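From the pipeline queue, job 12 of 40. The input is one protein chain; the requested action is below.

Action: predict structure.
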Amino acid sequence: MTIDLVTTEVVSSRLREIASMMEYALYHSGYSTILRESKDGTAGLTDAEGRAIIIGGGLQYHFLAYQRAVRCVLDRFPADQLRPGDSFVANDPYQCGTAHAPDLVAITPAFYDDRVIGFAVSIAHKADIGGLVPGSSGAAAREIYHDGLLLPAVRFRTAAGPNGDVEAIIRNNSRIPDVVLGDLRAQVGCTGLGVARLAGLCDEYGVGAVRDTMASILTLTKRRLAAELRGWTDGTAEAEGFLDHDGVAKDRPVRIHVRATKQADRLVLDFSDCSPQTAGPVNLTSCTAQAVSLLALLTTADPTIPVNLGIADAVDFIQPAGLVVNPQHPATVNHYFPTGHLVYNCVLSALGKLNPARAVAPSGLGSGAVSIGYKRGRAGKPAVIYELLITSLGATSRHDGAAIVQAIDHITPGAPVEIIETEYPIRVRSFDIWRDSGGPGRFRGGIGHVRELEVLADSTLTVRSANHRFTAGGVNGGFSPKASRIVLNPDLVEREELEPIQTRPLVAGDVIRFERSGGAGFGPPWERDRAAVLDDVRNGYVSADSALLIYRVEAVPESGAGPEVAGHKGASDEQ
């Protein structure tokens, strides 16, 4: 059927509203801090083929996994075997497209007139699904089986209620089963809300109008992106970056390289020169590598274009099997995010050369997560805190980078200090900006930060960080930021600098200091506005020494006042 533009826009808005409701229900029903506080999850709608239409939540790179997850359900349960009230769960990255095993996906078919018209889907991280260490994502993992429970698509719920057998299997494979099942029920519940609201929308506007609107959303996205690409100059650009190592071969950096070729309204992203897949856990599934690349494309083209499967039509990917960005089963992928972050930054840098007007400096590396497992938490039961390691964004041609904002996932913050200290045997000793950590430039990279955690009981720490040696590169003369670092017991003479990928025991009183990189700079720093340098010094973002040596601005404190700019050397002077 053909529907008018007004109806299309109204139905589109209603679909977005449904996804927002699902997102709200997910975050406010979750049990774990990683879900309800850090919002490490998404919820949204697909069409009957599983093509992502609308996604709510900050981890927008999930959108490609939605289709894979629906497909893994349909492969085991053909459409004629699905029934109203069914909900399915899965988490095997090689089957359902999730980034790593702790990401469980809930898939609920939406029916109207006894026919499947779409699916409501939610993907969310679980604080523990078994595996080698509390938090599941162990530094010593060498294959996917070390990462914890692996579920194919299984029927988790029917109209009669939950499948107790599946719940029992999940419960038996987690150190904190009540929290994990609470989060999973939140996912299933929000997808149930989604399918109910979608049926109500069909009642109101007709199932044909809803289907046509879903198709039009994908078509419009495809056309908008194609129009943006046609405005770029045809050509080829390359970029690369390195992870310190994979946790096994510690003397061997892991290379990410992309060659981007743009022709008319098509783009080819070639990852053939990336490192081979690794023995350690830094591998990145092809689905997630493609998704973060497509988000980098939107950033460089037009970030107002919505994230749905329509953006995938413009790009051809070359990812030979057996690379770190296309590992083959049973390679472990639990420490995927720093690799995905680096892929995102490399694609961003390459595309910035093809469309300089929207070039963006890379965000600070060193992202990832930390898990601390306790045999007895504050509630007297086993507890696992899974905390994200946030960095900061890179600068643009017009703005400084945002501070303490997660790259790619802009609304996934670290848990608040009050929540951490209330729910876990942890004291947050400090949480502050890290002076001189942002990459200098005409526009400065976002400032990094320092966070110190004191454990109040014996526990097991797993660090999943990255880039303690290699930093993000500045753009157009901008400088790199400081590298990230993690130090155990920084106040002691026998302090220890930890590896980026490491598991180790802690005793009560141990302190872990996390120094997180800022973003990279854009443009030569000596071209920065003098008033901006002065503000940076006053705010504690930049030291007076760095202001003089890097920005060529002398900040001299007045009596009873903050520093002022006393002089400014010309851009032609020696740095």
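Job complete. The first strand starts at residue 41 and ends at 47.
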